[in-house]
Amino acid sequence: MGSLQCLRVGGASVKSSTSLYDTNTSLILCCNTHAISFIPCPNAKTQDSILALTLTPRNRGVVAAVAEEEISVGRKLKIGVYFGTCWALGIAFNIYNKKLLNVFPYPLLSSSLSFIAGSLIMILSWATKIAGAPHTDFDFWMGLAPEAMAHGMGQVGTTVCMSKNDVSFTHVIRSAEPAFIVIFSQIFMGEKRFPLPVYMSLLPIIGGCALAAATQLNCNMIGFAGAMISNMASVMRNNLAKKTMKAKSLSGVNYYACLTILCSIFLTPFAYIVEGPEMWIQGWKTALQTASPRDLL
Fold first, then answer.
1. In terms of Cα–Cα distance, which of 174, 145, 161 is closest to 232?
2. Which residues span the domain enclosing 120?
């Protein structure tokens, strides 16, 4: 007889064992290279009988494929949830940001405060052990600096566009980012040409953005330029992130937290120089005439 092994399917553990049961699954697959047998195994939670199947080399691949397919479906669902959550939070952020900019039109300060708030939340999470603190060095922060500059530029560009135009118009122009990715990746990053269907899929995006810009009666060119700069900056950030993330083994959350902290360090002094406390104080007084402090905060 060969060795008895337990394959992971769903929540089952991957380990060799003679006592085969799992409290989290209703199926245990036992691999034996010389025989096929069915073993009733008690479930520790429900005391029901579940079936352990001993596999041969012929059906071992089938079970492995089924397990891999289940894991792949779960991963796709998780990514879909992440995309949906990011999309919903992005819309909520832009709406509240637009409400603030309508009465307090200082995009540099607004962007700086967003980065500062995110930085404080993550620092507090690290301090309270809610999230594991990253292990970084000086070289990491220096390598992250160009990406942080591009990220901050993209945020400022989007905020400038929202301060001058509608939120919907800002989203339409920002949706042209895939076209910028394709163009800039080939020109500046030296990537290979994309397949023809990729270029064809960009035509509706470019056409929709052009139509939206042409039919926007109150389009502000400063805001439009801000959105286009944001598109270019986002492409630069994404390309730089590919290189930086390959070199450092940080989780996605900690990586973005470090990026946010560096953005707040870069952008806050710039906002102070360009806009300044005098403009902010005067703008605050003006904003209080139409909104309460609670609404502004």
1. 174
2. 104-296
